[in-house]
Amino acid sequence: MASENRMSVRRSLIPLALALFAARCTNGSHPTAVEQPAAAAPHFLRWAGSSPPQFTVTGALSRQPVGGALLASQAAGLSLDRYTDSFWAVRGEPRSLQINYLSSTGDTSSAFLRLTTTDPAYVPGVGDLAPGDSVLITVTIDPDNIKVSLEPTGLLFGDPGQLQISYGGADGDLNGDGVLDDTDSRIESQLLGLWYREGTDGMWERIPAVQVLPDKSFVSALPHFSEYAVCW
Q1: How far is Cα 59 from Cα 95, in angstroms, rounded to an integer?
Q2: N or C: which end of the chain has fewer CB within 10 A?
Q3: CA distances (Å), 163 to each of 26, 71, 221, in order?
Q4: Which ranges in 141-206 belong to alpha helices (H)?
């Protein structure tokens, strides 16, 4: 019972922390980045294993995934260079997409990403959305790093969307040296965070996010869309 109470308290703190973060965000085009000195690109967490990860998808999909699984999209012939799926977000209606890991045994219980929207307000190149209007949102997963891009880039929200992204796919090897040790624990507890960048030429910056250690994930309120990664 004590364990259940602790979990209930932990989960109840997430909406509060997100609300405080959203209140700090301006009404401009980007979230409030954490100020830090100029530095080299951050260390991206890589997927564990020698083969690309596989996923299953649930939610308000724009199409039915093949066999229920999220497959790499085919771009430039048979080059499988990314994982992608889409759903329609509607202003004034809650919509969500959840992507789970697909293990080698077929287990789909480990969540990787959950994206929830209720108030898409402005689409670049289209303009303001009226209540009931919709926009096609696309989530693309990097096959090498624990990184996603959310499109259309620059989509603005009235009430921020919510992104939860797990780094469990690194299997604890956060520095990629093939050894699980105290260095990985220090990275997780002191250095790890959620980062974003504007466009492929932009600088990666850390943004405020709630770290949920039991779930090995970060949760953040998103006033707009860009590219996001778990880094240190």
Answers
A1: 8
A2: N
A3: 18, 21, 6
A4: 182-186
Cis amide prior to 53 (ω within 30 degrees): no
Give the residue carrying structure tokens 């960048």: 197
CA distance linking residue 95 with residue 30, whole number of Å: 22
Taking the C-alpha atoms of residue 150 and residue 46, their distance in angstroms, rounded to an integer, is 19
pLDDT single digits (tens) 151-178: 999 999 999 999 999 999 898 999 999 9
Measured distance CA(188)–CA(215) in Å, rounded: 12
pLDDT, tens digit, 9 for 90 and up, residues 86-107: 889 999 999 998 888 876 566 7
Distances (CA, A) of 87 to 91, 104, 115: 13, 27, 10
Among candidate residues 23, 45, 28, the one with its CA nearest the CA of residue 195: 45
- Residue ranges of the alpha helices (H) in the chain? 2-24, 182-186
Angle, CA of 78, 107 and 232, to the nearest 5°:
75
Nearest to 144 by CA among 82, 196, 74, 218: 82
Task: Supply 76's token pair.
Answer: 């430039």
Residues whose CB falls within 8 Å of the CB of residue 163, separated by 6 or more in sequence, listed in order:
113, 114, 115, 150, 219, 220, 222, 228
Q: What is the DSSP letter of 231?
A: E
DSSP 172: T
Q: Residue 226 belongs to what H/E stretch?
A: none
Domain positions in the chain are 2-231
Q: Side chain identity at 4, as an amino acid letter?
A: E
Place of tokens 């990985």: 184
The backbone torsions φ and ψ at residue 122, rounded to the nearest 5 degrees and listed phi first, read -145, 130
147 class by beta-carbon count within 10 Å (0-12 exposed, 13-18 middle, 19+ buried): buried
